[in-house]
Amino acid sequence: MALLHVDFFSDVLGMSMNMDVILPQQTNGQIGMEGKGASGKYKTMYLLHGMSDDQTIWQRRTSIERYVSRLGIAVVMPTTHLGFYTDTTYGMNYWTFFSRELPGICREFFPQMSDRPEDTLAAGLSMGGYGAWKLGLGASDTFGSAASLSGALDIVSDYKRNVTENAGHLPLFQGIFGSPEQLEGSENDILELADRLAASQKPLPRLYAWCGTEDFLYQGNLRAWEHVKKLGYDLTSLESPGDHQWKYWDQRIQDVLRWWLRTDLDLA
Cα 127–130–131 angle (5° rounding)? Predict the structure, then answer.
């Protein structure tokens, strides 16, 4: 595998941004790891971070590079700061950046990346799980699959819980989403996006979700899973004992890769 640290400029955001990118490489001499090249265009996973993190976190907390080494795929790990993958009320258009600009930039820099929705996955944890499903439901013409691990999928309830537990979060959430009343039923509400896409003539993404039964986001996940199931989405939803921490996400991202690629390969 090749690991690239990429600094680039976003016209949408009007500032420099960062992403780390893993590219497939055929190798035979690495000790303890086999590298597989890609035949044709690269399938690409956009791997999103949570609230406290940045573009480096999946490399620091998991063995993501080793997990994908034999799969022949690319992995894009961008930063969104605390933008919640949203065109914020304070004027930073992170949603437009992620849903439109970033895929185009990646395919310009790395022409071997496939532009087919069925070859493009959005995946993430917590805030990144929200972002991943949002990309699948709000930009299904680019992201044909979306996977959430412990995601903030019922974002309206999560907003209210956050500001109730920590009043200091209120300015942050207001700056991103406005009031809870403005958020509910808007393009930033996952449940609303699912409704809109199901009513359209656009293709529906494949969806995956896992959440631990002791996670503070568990009940919101159950509500979101039930909602999209009723709408007819192809959803794989899993729960097991666990809370909101990396030892679970390190394991489950392997499950996500097997689910997306429809393989039973042992990645550990």
Answer: 90
* Separation of alpha carbons 259 and 71, rounded Å: 13
Evaluate whether 193 touches 138 at the Cβ level (below 8 Å). Answer: yes
**What pLDDT, in 10s, does the model give residues 60-88?**
999 999 999 999 999 999 999 999 999 99
Decide: 159 and 146 in contact? Cβ < 8 Å: no
**Token couple for 268:** 């550990």
The Cα 62–Cα 55 span in angstroms is 13
Residue 126 Rama label (left phi>0; alpha psi -120 to 50; beta): left
DSSP string across 157-222: HHHHHHHHH-GGGHHHHHHHH-SHHHHTTSTT-HHHHHHHHHHSSSPPPEEEEEEETTSTTHHHHH
pLDDT tens-digit profile of 95-134? 999 999 999 999 999 999 999 999 999 999 999 999 999 9
Separation of alpha carbons 68 and 47, rounded Å: 12
Q: How many Cβ atoms from other residues are within 10 Å of residue 114's Cβ?
A: 17
- If residue 135 lies in a helix (H) or strand (E), which one and from where to where? helix 127-138
Nearest to 46 by CA among 111, 126, 128: 128
- Tokens matching residue 152: 């903030």
Contacts of 28 (CB under 8 A, 6+ apart): 34, 35
Distance between first and last Cα of the chain: 16
Neighbours of 230 (CB within 10 A): 10
Helix (DSSP H) and strand (DSSP E) numbers for the chain: 11, 8
